[in-house]
């Protein structure tokens, strides 16, 4: 069975318990179903509402202020509900208002409308709105109230009609047919809406589980790739540098061992980024470094700028990558511990082969000397990374904020 078929089967066989479908970013399908129901409700309400209004106008043969007031009370919220459903705003609130108003209008009907002119075979205009009241309940209320409205409104209408007809036999027959028809139709409306919403909720739940499973698989794959890369790095670079340092006897061999150790440290520090491999060491312009830092701020959702000062400069690719990664760590620390307050980044150079990156924030500050040995965010990702490229890092922090200064100059 394919993944798509399994997802669809899961959606059908794991329907949630009836109730309000939760609103959230994961309700993509549920929100679309709600919108479709609102549009269909607006179309049906317009058709039946127009029929009811035409019937009300044609049967109003003389000025009857109570009857006119009842018409305004009913048709006003109905028009408001149609507009809300059409534009897709305030649907639940407006539909709930009409559902309650219509139920009250049904109860007041015998006291407002003259019962001496009632004919058993004639359906009053308020009858045409019974199932619109059910539709309003579907759009506004939880399932239990929806079923209550679908059963209660026809029964209220039937009681009102029988009361006006003094419970005569002719009214029992006509009213019984109307009530049974509206109950069946109302139950069908509520059941279809409930089924569509539950299937949509099942699809959204299956989608969320699929995304969660994919995320876990991607994380596991990334961890395995990192483990393999770290193992290869330790064998090819770190171990080789240690062996070279242990065997170094002459000044030239010691210089070579230092270079190998520096390269191994740089590669070890860069394993957390997607550019773990050194790649080309072609010159990189300052504008590229600034662009990378701006992209980092954008990805983090930080409202900060990267300011350029001084003369243009080009750095070796290895140096540029290390400085970008160290600055990213400083930015991450500012966002995590200072909530990005007063975050500002400056890229400044006063010589062709020199660059200083400064990350400032206005957070509560901290004591750099009190950082535990096991906290590698500053020690490894900033200090050791800059040391690996023969650069300098300076961190100053107090109650007014923290400044991380990363500088490199060609010797």
TrEMBL record:
InterPro entries: HATPase_C_sf. The chain crosses the membrane at residues 36-59, 65-87, 94-112, 124-141, 148-165, 171-196. This is ATP-binding protein. The keyword Membrane applies. The keyword Membrane applies. Signal peptide: none annotated. Keywords: Membrane, Transmembrane, Transmembrane helix. Gene3D superfamilies: Histidine kinase-like ATPase, C-terminal domain.
